[in-house]
């Protein structure tokens, strides 16, 4: 007579385990994506003679395609099997399952297998789920790649030298600082480019003056100094580093009752002074000329006790 029984462990797929008295029982495990094909040969089972007594059967259920019903211990020591269903008095056999293998280059070991549980595999990340992330860190057989957020450059002090890619972070670089009084910002920075600094123009001493001072983003402006016309003008106000010279016309002419105190120069006009007029108690000893003043002396006073006035004083 022939009899059959089906036993179960969690998982999909079914296989039928049959037995015939005196013949070996062979269970074939179908290949899956997680375990290689393997045949397990069990020892012949000695069945008692058929009687009219009722037969006790194991509960009907299913066995996954990578599992087998066995009366022998599972091959746990080598790491190839784990015990999915332990042996019990009512069933009389255990269910042994092959430990799953993670697919190389596509999966990693998320949870290690134990004597009573299978290995759990996770899929490697191929790309990060968000646009503002990049893959960081190499994958291993027990860990996935890591996604990190792309760095944002500080707008006030940095620019983006290299944008964030699927596998690399944003590369930021500090902005160049222009030095006040030495250079100015000739080209402003952008989100992806540095600012450019240019040396300030230096005005030529005695020939130029600073007509417009520099700023953070503009150069110094220089202008040529005004030159006074020779023999026509003189320098009324001298130039400075930031102001032009001021010229004025020679205009002073000494009158007939004046004399020249100081002749004109490159920096001044003529200077005239009124000629001196002698008082009633004075007489003139020298007349006023174009370049000299008149001179006066005090008129002598006669002593009435011993002298008399021989001749009266005159203007000269």
Classify the helix fraction into a percent range.
under 10%
* Cross-sheet strand order for the largest sheet: 5-7-6
Terminal-residue CA separation: 180 Å
Query: What is the H/E string?
Result: EEEEEEEEEEEEEEEEEEEEEEE
| Count of helical stretches | 0
What is the residue-mean pLDDT, rounded to a whole number? 80
Largest sheet: 3 strands, antiparallel
Low-confidence stretches: 1-62
Q: What is the C-alpha radius of gyration, as a whole number of Å?
A: 60 Å
Tertiary shape: rod-shaped
- By DSSP, the count of extended strands is 23
Q: Strand fraction band?
A: 25-35%
Structural class: mainly beta
How is this structure best summarized?
This protein has about 325 residues and is mainly β. It has strands at about 1-5, 15-20, 25-30, 40, 65-70, 80-85, 95-100, 105-110, 120-125, 135, 145-150, 160, 170-175, 185, 195-200, 210, 220-225, 235, 245-250, 260, 270-275, 280-285, 295-300.
Essential attributes:
two-stranded antiparallel sheet, single chain, mainly beta, 316 residues, disordered N terminus
Protein architecture, described:
This protein is an all-beta fold and 316 residues long. It has no helices and 23 strands. It has strands spanning 2-5, 17-20, 25-29, 38-42, 67-70, 81-85, 94-98, 107-111, 120-123, 133-136, 146-149, 158-162, 171-174, 183-187, 196-199, 208-212, 221-224, 233-237, 246-249, 258-262, 271-274, 282-286, 295-298. It has a 3-stranded antiparallel β-sheet, with no helix packed on it. It has a two-stranded antiparallel sheet with strand order 1-2. A two-stranded antiparallel sheet has the order 3-4. It is rod-shaped and about 180 Å long. The N and C termini lie far apart (180 Å). The model is unreliable at 1-62 (pLDDT under 50).
């Amino acid at each position: 007579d022939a009899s059959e029984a089906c036993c179960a462990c969690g998982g999909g797929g079914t296989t039928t385990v049959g037995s015939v008295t005196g013949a070996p029982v062979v269970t074939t495990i179908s290949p899956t994506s997680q375990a290689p094909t393997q045949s397990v040969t069990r020892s012949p089972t000695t069945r008692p003679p058929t009687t009219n007594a009722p037969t006790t059967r194991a509960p009907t259920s299913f066995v996954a395609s990578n599992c087998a019903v066995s009366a022998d211990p599972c091959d746990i020591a080598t790491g190839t099997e784990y015990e999915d269903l332990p042996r019990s008095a009512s069933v009389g056999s255990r269910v042994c399952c092959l430990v799953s293998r993670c697919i190389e280059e596509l999966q990693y070991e998320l949870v290690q297998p134990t004597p009573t549980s299978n290995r759990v595999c996770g899929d490697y990340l191929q790309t990060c789920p968000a646009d503002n992330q990049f893959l960081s860190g190499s994958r291993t057989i027990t860990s996935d790649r890591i996604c990190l957020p792309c760095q944002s450059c500080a707008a006030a002090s940095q620019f983006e030298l290299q944008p964030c890619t699927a596998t690399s972070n944003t590369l930021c670089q500090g902005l160049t600082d222009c030095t006040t009084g030495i250079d100015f910002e000739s080209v402003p920075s952008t989100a992806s480019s540095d600012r450019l600094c240019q040396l300030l123009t230096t005005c030529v001493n005695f020939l130029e003056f600073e007509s417009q001072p520099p700023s953070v983003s503009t150069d110094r402006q220089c202008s040529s100094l005004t030159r006074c016309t020779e023999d026509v003008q003189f320098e009324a106000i001298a130039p400075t580093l930031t102001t032009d010279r001021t010229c004025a016309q020679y205009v002073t002419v000494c009158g007939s009752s004046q004399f020249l105190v100081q002749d004109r120069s490159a920096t001044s006009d003529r200077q005239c002074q009124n000629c001196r007029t002698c008082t009633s108690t004075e007489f003139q000893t020298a007349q006023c000329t174009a370049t000299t003043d008149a001179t006066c002396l005090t008129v002598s006073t006669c002593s009435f006790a011993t002298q008399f006035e021989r001749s009266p004083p005159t203007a000269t």
